[in-house]
Amino acid sequence: MGAEQKAQELGVSFEPLAPGYLNLCIRSGNQLITSGHTSDLQGVLGQGLTVAQGYEAAKDCAKKILRSVHDEHGTLDNLRVIKLLGCVYSAPDFTDQHLVINGASDLLHEIFGKEGDGYHARSALGFAALPTGAAVEVEAIFEIKE
């Protein structure tokens, strides 16, 4: 089963996102580079929001990223996940950013394979604020396999 079919089975929509101020996904050579995609969930992790809520917010970001990648490339098949950057709106003493961003990583592992094309590099960072008060923002880089 290809990545696109697996994503559809996991509930990923391929309805295009409305264009924004910046390009949501751009191709450069054999790479697809996304802008940061923010969660619908707003608030601060460790100050009203739990790790479980943050995990779902990061998963939401990954689904949006996949929509943008699909919109630019036309398919999720024959892609390799290279890198994720996860940003978490965090209380000063919150240190579980990595557990929050696992929501995005785990979804990509399910779709592309943890041992194969979904095995990626990642950074998970805490921020004092994110645009629009979003709880999580994630960006990604994919390689187009020839």
Characterization of this structure:
- This protein has helices at residues 3-9, 51-73, 97-117; strands at 25-28, 31-34, 37-38, 44-45, 48-49, 79-89, 121-127, 136-144.
- 40% of the residues are buried.
- It has a single domain, classed as 60s Ribosomal Protein L30, Chain: A (2-Layer Sandwich), CATH 3.30.1330.
- It contains three helices and eight strands; from the N terminus they run αβββββαβαββ.
- The mean pLDDT is 96.
- 35% of the residues lie in helices and 28% in strands.
- Strands 1, 2, 3, 6, 7 and 8 form a six-stranded mixed β-sheet that branches. It has a two-stranded parallel sheet with strand order 4-5.
- Helix 2 (51-73) packs across helix 3 (97-117).
- By secondary structure, it is an alpha/beta fold.
- Strand 6, helix 3 and strand 7 form a beta-alpha-beta unit.
CATH superfamily: RutC-like
Label the overall shape.
Answer: globular
Reading off the top of the CATH hierarchy, the class is best stated as Alpha Beta
Distance between the termini: 18 Å
In percent, how much strand structure appears in the residues? 25-35%
Low-confidence stretches: none
Estimate percent helicity.
Answer: 25-40%
Q: Please identify the structural class as seen in this structure.
A: alpha/beta
- H and E string: HEEEEEHEHEE
- CATH architecture tag: 2-Layer Sandwich
Describe the biggest sheet? 6 strands, mixed
Q: Using the coordinates shown, work out and report the CATH topology.
A: 60s Ribosomal Protein L30, Chain: A
Average predicted confidence as pLDDT: 96
Number of domains: 1
Rg estimate, integer Å: 14 Å
Q: How many DSSP E strands?
A: 8
